[in-house]
Design goal:
Structural class: alpha/beta
Order of helices and strands: HHEEHEHEEEEEHHHHEHEEHEEH
Low-confidence stretches: 1-42, 50-60
Largest sheet: 6 strands, mixed
Mean pLDDT: 88
Number of strands: 13
Strand content: 5-15%
Number of helices: 11
Length: 387
């Protein structure tokens, strides 16, 4: 009953809505199959023995490949790692063998999070051994877990399949990096005991709602009288579904929302010189989430001078907004707030003060203002630059 519920939940978790990016014919051709493979006994067997002679692979029970990980208490990194490696062409449909028996592990085609060996040529992806300091690269310096190791070596293949593009395509590379930054790196850090902040101060609150905690709670409770390997392996299947479905949700977001928004911001940033000679005013021709993209692209492109104001149309009122860019993505202070003498004013009073018709408001903090027209908003930004 529990497995059936998990199956239905995982199917809902990876349901994909059609999108408009023309080069993506089917953003998630593997999503349903991957979720099914994480729960359906015909597609995935999680067990604690290497004996497979009784398995008829012709009926869809597996591919004949076997991926090993340790038995006992499980964590998010090996649950996600097992999910990810089964998305690859080489290990699609592989069984998962949970054991610490070195002779059994040596007979398997891939081993994750156990065995004390990191050797991608032999598909060994452990991170617990002395002297292991592998990182993702590309500017990331967090020590990898088994999930990060699998993603490092197979992530581009997985992303390329979802985007229906070649692995060397720039979009594949950008999504590959973004998903590591926004999803996988935190799992690596938590599994390796790396604090998020460099401080000895105790946290102000407890957070047990993150993915690693939720996966950990799927382990059989110590009060449960059934501590059998079968119960533990069934729980590990659920962990694969949970971690894998959230990974797929992250991919879906980055493909359908993050990547198109990045393209829009890139285009608008590169054309900012046609808006104002200063190069410090950017206009979004279509509204999208822009803040984080702007910071990242300015750094990548070495933009100088930095953008001070972003103009965009409010979809509800159809008026235009002038927003001051903050000094950092997680800071409230603006690079150049709108003039203090304008703040808190509205409508005719503000238009009289600025000498610009159509003014609507300026926020008390000076981080945003509005005008009825694009031309008026642009004049407000230009005037603010001179103050």
């Amino acid at each position: 009953m529990l497995a059936a519920c998990a199956w239905r939940l995982s199917q809902r978790a990876v349901t994909i809505l059609p999108r408009v990016r023309s080069q993506i014919l089917n953003p998630f051709p593997m999503a349903a199959a991957a979720a099914a493979g994480a729960t359906s006994p015909k597609r995935l067997r999680v067990y604690s023995s290497a004996a497979t002679a009784d398995v008829d692979y012709s009926n869809g029970a597996g591919s004949g490949k076997r991926v090993g990980t340790h038995n006992g208490s499980f964590h998010c990194d090996e649950a996600l790692g097992c999910f990810l490696i089964r998305l690859t062409s080489q290990f699609a449909g592989a069984d998962v063998v949970r054991t610490r028996d070195s002779q059994i592990l040596d007979s398997l085609e891939a081993v994750l999070d156990v065995g004390g060996v990191y050797d991608p040529s032999w598909h060994r992806y452990d991170h617990h051994q002395k002297g292991f300091n592998e990182v993702f690269g590309h500017g990331f310096n967090t020590k990898l877990s088994s999930a990060g190791l699998v993603y490092k070596h197979f992530g581009k293949e997985i992303i390329a399949k979802e985007l229906q593009l070649n692995e060397d395509h720039e979009d594949v590379h950008q999504v590959y990096l973004a998903i590591y930054k926004n999803f996988v790196e935190a799992l690596d850090a938590i599994d390796n005991g790396i604090n998020q902040y460099d401080t000895e101060q105790p946290p102000k609150y407890v957070n047990n709602t993150h993915l690693s905690s939720r996966v950990g709670r799927l382990n059989p409770d110590w009060t449960d009288p059934d501590q059998s390997p079968e119960k533990e392996n069934a729980a590990f299947q659920q962990a694969m579904v949970l971690a894998g479905s959230e990974f797929m949700e992250s991919v879906r977001f980055h493909v359908n929302s993050w990547l198109p928004a990045r393209s829009i911001v890139m285009e608008c940033l590169l054309s900012r010189g046609s808006v104002d000679p200063s190069g410090e005013i950017m206009v979004l021709d279509r509204f999208c989430p822009w803040k984080l993209h702007l910071f990242e692209l300015e750094q990548e492109l070495k933009i100088d001078p930095l953008t001070k104001y972003v103009l965009y149309q409010d979809e509800r009122s159809k008026s235009w907004r002038v927003q001051a860019v903050s000094v950092a993505p997680d800071r409230f202070e603006s690079r150049k707030a709108l003039p203090e003498k304008w703040r808190g004013m509205r409508d005719d009073e503000l238009s009289k003060e600025t000498g610009i018709p159509g003014c609507v408001f300026i926020h008390m903090s000076g981080f945003i203002g509005g005008n009825k027209t694009y031309e008026g908003a642009l004049e407000m930004a230009r005037a603010a630059l001179k103050c």
